[in-house]
Amino acid sequence: MPKLTFAKKFISAYSKKIRHNLLLFLKWSVISALTGLIVGSFSTLFAFIMNIMTEYREQNDYMLYFLPLGGILTVFLYSAFKYKNDKGTNLVLSTIHARSEIPLRMAPLIFITTIITHVFGGSAGREGAALQLGGSIGNQIGRSLKLDDADKRVVVLCGMSAAFSALFGTPMAAAIFSLEVVSVGVMYYAALVPCVFSSLIATYFSKFFGIKETDFAVVNFPELSILNSFETVILAILCAAVSVLFILLLHSTGDLFRKYLKNPYIRIVVAACAIVILSLIFQTRDYNGAGMNVIARAVNGEAVPYAFILKMLFTAITIEAGFRGGEIVPSFFIGATFGCTFGSLLGFSPSVCAAVGLIAVFCGVTNCPITSLLISFELFGAGGVPYFMIAVAVSYFMSGYYGLYKDQTIVYSKYKTKFLNRKARK
């Protein structure tokens, strides 16, 4: 009889736990589906307009000369919306840490101003806008559903994943990126199911409306040997150094702008004129916009040797002057062109080195090794996994505690089982 009583208690307690988990699962399934659809629809519209505007700019070189006007319009819009102190993606990370709140007005602002940056030829990516757009809408969904603060932060993560996924068509990397980028050394596994669901739903939504996923075709990954393993390690070390250089250039350029050009209108006009002049000096439009065509050429084994340096310079001037966009696609550009140049000099496949360089620099600037492995698989397939494993591990280790986002928290040391809880260096 005592054994039977114990069994009944165990079954009763376990049944309650299952019901509780099922209710939570249903709750987050509905919320993540809603978030995926809403954020996915806005992100799909954003991607569609971005593609049209980018194509128009590439066919009409004169658009670059209106970049100063685009800069003035960007500053005016932020001033008109009474949102002068924009922290960009850092605000989204700060919200996850419960230190601030994302205003809904960020969504239309980042939507419009990122398009302005790209149509007039500023050097920036799209993912910064995606993360901010998704985070802003996710936060509003959480508020509308009257969720508590902890659940609201999960919906913000869902929104980030959905927007990233809809734009790039990389649902695995998008689902994990938002969990991994906030705090180095720990992941927000409580948001795993919601982020996976919202990411997949947003991807399918964008594909249904004709947004193509980002992918590249590497000609051939040779079998891993001692020699090319060593070459991959060297490339990853150099990519880590390039990552740190890019981060330092971004933040130091911003400091110089704010010190010597305090008026935001003057600052952005001066920067825009600098971009126009540099484009004319080098007689190319390769460094305007995101540069996806240049990345594709690098992966096919063709890159200007100094392209990665110029992209760092163009992007630092654009982003830190006040234009809107992201730094991740420029990091793809920098890594791919640097890797291609490295391969050409060393006699190792420039195509393979471009792919490895792209992933290594992405890992170095974001401190997201799991996301880096997943995005390598989604962009380049499974053939290069051994190379990417080496590159990600080495770049993560060698890039230290530098990071694109100053509100990214280094929770645990990269080198010891030690709790740090400090900000990323900038």
Topology, element by element:
Layout: H1 2-59, H2 67-80, H3 89-96, H4 106-119, H5 127-144, H6 149-168, H7 171-181, E1 183-184, H8 192-208, H9 226-260, H10 264-281, H11 292-299, H12 307-321, H13 328-346, H14 350-366, H15 369-380, H16 385-398, E2 409-412, E3 419-423
Gist of the model:
The protein is mainly alpha-helical and 426 residues long.
Task: Please describe what this structure looks like.
The protein is an all-alpha fold. The protein contains 16 helices and 3 strands. Helices cover 70% and strands 3% of the residues. The model has no long low-confidence stretch (mean pLDDT 90).
Low-pLDDT stretches are none
Rg from C-alpha positions? 22 Å
Strand order of the largest sheet: 1-2-3
Beta-strand portion reads under 5%
Give me the number of helical elements.
16
Number of strand elements: 3
Structural class assignment:
mainly alpha
End-to-end gap: 67 Å
Taking the sheet with the most strands, its summary is:
3 strands, mixed
Could you report the average pLDDT, rounded to the nearest whole number?
90
Q: What's the overall geometry?
A: globular
What is the ordering of alpha helices and beta strands?
A: HHHHHHHEHHHHHHHHHEE
Helical content (DSSP H or I, runs of 4+): 55-70%
Q: What keyword list fits this structure?
A:
426 residues, mainly alpha, 3 strands, three-stranded mixed β-sheet, globular, 16 helices
